[in-house]
Write a structure and sequence with these properties.
binds fe (ii) ion; metal-binding; globular; 8-stranded antiparallel beta sheet; iron; 230 residues; single chain; binds 2-oxoglutaric acid; 34% strand; alpha+beta; 6-stranded antiparallel beta sheet
Length: 230
C-alpha cells in the first residue's frame, strides 16, 4: 500500500474520538521498520534548509534539521494525506473555540501560507543522544498555523526520551501526558490549544510539547508540521 492508502485506511473515527476526548491521538504503526530506518538515515543524508543546535538556543540539547524543498516523497505524502483527514477535525474545533476555517487540501493551506509570507518548509528531523532533551515549546511560525501536527519516532534504541505533552489548564494546575509511541506510529497533537467541554460550553486548553532526557542510546524522530514558516 502507498503511504496515502495507509493513512486513509487508519481508523479515523477512533482517531477523531481520541482527539476530541483527550486532545491527542496515537495511530497504529504506519511505517515499516525499513521505511523508518531509511527516514532516520536522512538525518545524515538529506537536503536541509537549516540545522539547529538546540543547546545554543537554550531549546534543550540535541540537533534538528528542517528539510528543504523538494521534500522527500514519503514526507510530502504523509503531509498531504494526514492533512486531508485532520482538516475536517480542525474545522470542527474552530467552531468550538473560534479560529480559522481550513481548506480541505494541503496545497490550498500552503497557498494561504505563501500569501502570508510563509514559504519555508517546516518538516524536520531530530536526533537526540544520551543526555539530550527538548524543552517544552510550540511550533508556530507565522500568522497562519494549522491546529494539529504529527510526529513519529524512527528508531528503537533509546531509553528515556519520552514525548511529553503539557496542558496548561485555565485557572488550574497543568496536566502532563507522557507517550512512548511504537516505532513508525504517529502521534497527532495540537500545535497550540484544544477545546475542552466545560459546564458552560467549550473552553481553550493551551498545550506545549517536548521530550524528556534520553538516558541511553539514540533517538531520531520525524516531525511534520503542516503550515510553512516565515
Ligand atoms: O522529538 C520529538 O519527539 C519532538 C519533536 C518536536 O518537537 C516536533 O516534532 O515538533
Ligand atoms: Fe516541536
Amino acid at each position: 500500500m502507498t503511504i496515502t492508502e495507509r493513512v486513509d485506511a487508519l481508523d479515523w473515527a477512533d482517531l477523531t474520538a481520541q482527539l476530541d476526548g483527550r486532545g491527542f491521538a496515537v495511530t497504529a504503526p504506519l511505517l515499516t521498520d525499513g521505511e523508518s530506518a531509511e527516514l532516520a538515515g536522512l538525518f545524515d543524508g538529506g537536503h536541509f534548509r537549516s540545522t539547529i543546535d538546540m543547546a545554543r538556543h537554550r531549546f534543550g540539547d540535541g540537533r534538528y534539521r528542517y528539510f528543504e524543498h523538494p521534500l522527500p516523497d514519503t514526507i510530502g505524502a504523509l503531509r498531504g494525506a494526514f492533512y486531508a483527514h485532520l482538516a475536517r477535525v480542525a474545522n470542527v474545533w474552530s467552531e468550538r473555540i473560534g479560529g480559522a476555517t481550513f481548506p480541505l487540501t494541503h496545497e490550498a493551506l500552503l497557498e494561504r501560507c505563501h500569501e502570508a509570507g510563509q514559504q519555508r518548509p517546516t518538516p524536520l528531523i531530530l536526533r537526540y543522544g544520551e543526555g539530550d532533551w527538548n524543552a517544552l515549546h510550540q511550533d508556530l511560525y507565522g500568522d497562519v498555523y494549522f491546529p494539529f501536527q504529527i510526529l513519529t519516532v524512527l528508531t528503537d534504541e533509546h531509553e528515556g526520551g519520552e514525548f511529553v505533552l503539557l496542558e496548561n489548564r485555565p485557572r488550574a494546575q497543568s496536566r502532563a501526558h507522557v507517550l512512548n509511541p511504537l516505532r513508525g506510529a504517529f502521534v497527532i497533537f495540537p500545535t497550540r490549544e484544544r477545546p475542552e467541554l466545560g459546564k458552560r460550553g467549550y473552553y481553550k486548553v493551551g498545550l506545549r510539547h517536548g521530550v524528556s532526557t534520553v538516558t541511553a542510546g539514540h533517538r531520531t524522530a520525524l516531525g511534520v508540521i503542516f503550515h510553512d514558516a516565515r
